[in-house]
Amino acid sequence: MPNDDSPTLLTVRDAAERLNVTPRTLKYYEERGLVTPSRSEGRYRLYDEDDLERFSRILRLRALGFSLAGITEMLKRPLETTEGGRNRYSMDSLQQIRDGLAQQIESLDARIESVRRELKEVQKLKSELADDLNYVERRLAGESADELIRQRRAAAASKRAGSKGTKA
């Protein structure tokens, strides 16, 4: 005789059907770390009512246009029931969500700046290699090594003179 006190566990297919999404959607949110279902002995995903409620929150927030990073931050905070019976975040929770999102943006800004510096370095290297390639291709085309070296020295002197002018 089954125990009526045990929670109902749904397979990924049944949970997806109940939430009106595809099984792949549920697996995607699990891959992103938003939900962690239990597993059967055969390693099948099993979802309880708490998992379904969490999925419902995720789906509502996605429908409102929130990013997965924002949703992840929101899921860390509990909802509180208002006098009208609606679930909302407290001001304290909203402040914590705001701080978490701001911290993520600051981190991304730092990454962007780092990538910009790296891009600038790579562009400089590309320019230098293009000059080297041009020299070798012109030598292969039969141009005089002495003349090409004279041109490279003149170009280098011109660059140095130009960079001194911009530093002043």
UniProtKB/TrEMBL annotation:
Keywords on record: Coiled coil, DNA-binding, Repressor, Transcription, Transcription regulation
Stored InterPro entries: DNA-bd_dom_put_sf (IPR009061), MerR-type_HTH_dom (IPR000551), MerR_fam (IPR047057)
Residue ranges of coiled coil: 91-139
Signal peptide: none
Gene3D superfamilies: 1.10.1660.10
Highest rank taxon of the organism: Bacteria
Transmembrane segments: none
Boundaries of every HTH merR-type domain copy: 9-77
One Pfam family matching this protein: MerR_1
Protein name, as recorded: Transcriptional regulator, MerR family
Native source organism of the sequence: Paraburkholderia diazotrophica
Lineage per the UniProt record: Bacteria, Pseudomonadati, Pseudomonadota, Betaproteobacteria, Burkholderiales
